[in-house]
Design a protein that fits this description.
The strands form five sheets. Strands 1, 2, 3, 4, 13, 14, 15, 16 and 17 form a nine-stranded antiparallel beta sheet that branches. The protein has helices spanning about 15-30, 80-90, 135, 150-160, 170-180, 195-210, 215-225, 260-265, 285-295, 305-315, 325, 350-355, 400-410, and strands at about 1-5, 40-45, 50-60, 65, 70-75, 110-115, 120-125, 245-250, 255-260, 280, 300, 300-305, 340, 345-350, 365, 375, 380-385. The chain is about 30% helix and about 15% strand.
Length: about 425
């Protein structure tokens, strides 16, 4: 176990060092038992880093250890960054949340909704109202993912080349146009379904800013926040820091196998800039992003968003204030459904009791397909980032276990 020198003694910010050690020991067992390759963890409180640790190998076959600067594919933890980018433009008056997406992306005009049939012969009806930007940011647009493998629309997406990747030769604009040409799963705004909608938001950022998504991120977010290792690709000079990607060989996840095909993709300059899942980052970089959100849009004197905008982002936007269990389709997502709502690009805890794990109402965050996770808890002034590389993320209950262990280490009263 390697622990990094932190900004503050955890006891000064209401965290018990002995109980924090439980967190490390628990996840070290996953590595020792061959169920995870390695991991990085950082916990902050009141804007100060109180605990940081690493364990295991970034490359099991090569025997190279995880280090503080190990690079991880964060997959869908890209989504909150894309949402922040969009909200930065929103604050500049570039759009309104109620604007039809077709106003800026004409392919989204005249959408149709799937109501029956087969993938080869779908039956559709006209959308009652247009897909709006608010729908994209809340996953209520009616888009989907091909990897769900549940219904006809998922099959339609796979037939079009969208499952764990995109058709060869298509850039972000081309993918967005392709999705717009497919039917919607439901009338916009009537259900929640985890989907490619934040990728479409990434394209909106490009159109509204006049910059490519990678350029906007670098200039407006990563540069100001000093996130020096976060990007859409890993340069050759940094390839040795990249963690290898693994997948379980059995349903119980007792053994791992290296996923070289998907793992090496991040070493190539991408044609498709995936605002929904394309970034690589480090523990410390992403923790700076989380701290910015905890501090309501500002970090080290640099402000990306206004205080009210962050609060609005982290509010539950599902109609009637319901949770995902009541409004979402029972498909895979990077969060639990019970007691959890959804904001603009992030999940929001409404009731930790309903979710059956420790936490706070108002906590928000998201996870990634390779079992990564982060959250921000304004009530406890807490930030947590956990990075590893095991795909898919529902192999083990890592996130719920991380919650119960981290919150058990809090020993002061909520301020």
């Amino acid at each position: 176990m390697t622990q990094t020198v932190t900004e503050v003694d955890p006891r000064e910010v209401g965290l018990d060092p002995t109980r924090l050690a439980r967190v490390d020991r628990h996840f070290a067992r996953y590595v020792d038992e061959g169920r995870l390759p390695g991991w990085s963890l950082v916990i902050g409180r009141y804007g100060r880093t109180a605990h940081a640790s690493t364990y295991g190998k970034r490359d099991v076959e090569a025997g190279t250890p995880v280090t503080d600067d190990t690079l991880y594919r964060i997959y869908s933890m890209t989504k909150p960054i894309t949402a922040v980018a969009a909200l930065m433009l929103y604050e500049e008056g570039a759009f309104e949340l109620t604007d039809p997406v077709g106003k800026y992306l004409p392919a989204f005009e005249n959408q149709r909704v799937l109501v029956g049939g087969t993938a080869a012969r779908p039956v559709t009806v006209p959308a009652i109202e247009p897909v709006r930007i608010w729908h994209l940011l809340t996953h209520t647009a009616g888009l989907t993912y091909g990897f769900h493998h549940v219904d006809v629309l998922d099959e339609i997406y796979r037939a079009a080349g969208f499952e764990w990747g995109t058709p060869r030769g298509l850039d972000l604009a081309g993918c967005v146009d392709a999705w717009a040409g497919l039917p919607l799963a439901f009338q916009p705004g009537t259900e929640w379904n985890y989907s490619v909608s934040i990728d479409v938001v990434g394209r909106l950022v490009e159109v509204l800013s006049g910059q490519t998504l990678d350029a906007f991120f670098a200039e407006r977010i990563f540069g100001p926040l000093k996130m020096t290792d976060t990007a859409f690709t890993v340069a050759a000079a940094d390839a040795d820091r990249l963690a290898a990607l693994y997948a379980p060989t059995s349903r119980d996840g007792a053994k791992m196998v290296r996923n070289e095909r998907m793992g090496r993709a991040i070493l190539r300059e991408p044609r498709y800039l995936a605002g929904g899942g394309g970034l690589v980052s480090t523990r410390n970089d992403y923790h700076r992003f989380a701290q910015m959100l905890l501090q309501r849009g500002e970090l080290d004197g640099v402000r990306l968003l206004g205080d009210r905008t962050v609060r609005y982002m982290a509010a539950n936007h599902l109609p009637g204030g319901v949770d995902l269990a009541a409004f979402g389709r029972p498909l895979f997502a990077e969060t639990t459904y019970e007691g959890t709502g959804f904001g603009l690009g992030v999940s929001v805890v409404l009731d930790p009791v309903a979710g059956r794990t420790l936490g706070s109402a108002g906590e928000f965050g998201w996870g990634g397909a390779a079992s990564t996770a982060f959250w921000v808890d304004p009530a406890e002034q807490l930030t947590v980032v956990f990075l590893t590389q095991l795909l898919p993320s529902n192999t083990y209950p890592l996130r719920s276990q991380l919650h119960q262990l981290v919150y058990s280490a809090l020993i002061d009263r909520t301020p």
